[in-house]
Amino acid sequence: MSNRTLAADAKANIVFVPLDKLKKSPKNVRKIPHTKAEIAALAASIGAIGMLQYPVVEPETGPNGKPNGFYLVNAGEGRRLAQLLRAKRKEIKSGELIRCVLDTEHNATEISLAENAVRTEMHPADQYEAFAKLHDEHGMNAEDIAARFGVTAAVVRQRLKLGAVSPRLMALYRKGEMNLEQLCAFAITEDHERQERVWSELPRFNRSREAILRALSEGQVRSDDRRALFVGAKAYEQAGGTIIRDLFDARGGGFFADAELVNRLARERLQREADKIAKEGWRWVVAEPELDR
To answer: Where in the chain are the domains?
Structure first.
């Protein structure tokens, strides 16, 4: 079968259409286009494991009402664009045969709407387990997983981070007894016993993400605390301090684990600033982290 021929399986309504004979359908209900990143991710996924869901097409007709050799993609425009990107990269030929589902019986708008609207997102806990298996058993990093499955590397890292959460708390999340924000807060530490204790000790009316983080980070310093900002993450880490990153904080925050070190570095820097001012000719300069009055 050559790239310029069209083969059909009448029983399954499967047709093999050359890529350069596929066109965007005006009946496709998706008006906001896929982003370049989404198309690139989809192209990577197709290149790695193939196209698991085939585009749904119908023949395009000319002014005379007869098929003109092109096919309109009523569902699967993202897959068409991903294959075009692969052709542009010379991964496949421009006339590569694409397996499609031929549907001329159903309303094209209904087909497009069904694909775009009637779908169930994968549960985050299931997503975590799938990503963790690829990471642990197949050695794939966050970027590899993200590129193959149409999500960002940040989302993959967040899902993998859920591996730090106690299995008991994960079970509560699956049952609907805990929400995702609460679950993510526990990923700040890998101490399962402490996680479970905090959950049981917090009052039911105050189990917010912030309340959980406060309880788990007792004795630590938030990265947006004025002491941490004054010292700076670089100086703190150079002094041997550890920063616990909160991957679920949109601002990229976290906690400086060693509060005593933060306080010492803050005092030392403050004293250096005081010494500079003293050199200006002041007879009396005192540096204090906090005003006592």
So the answer is: 7-117, 219-293
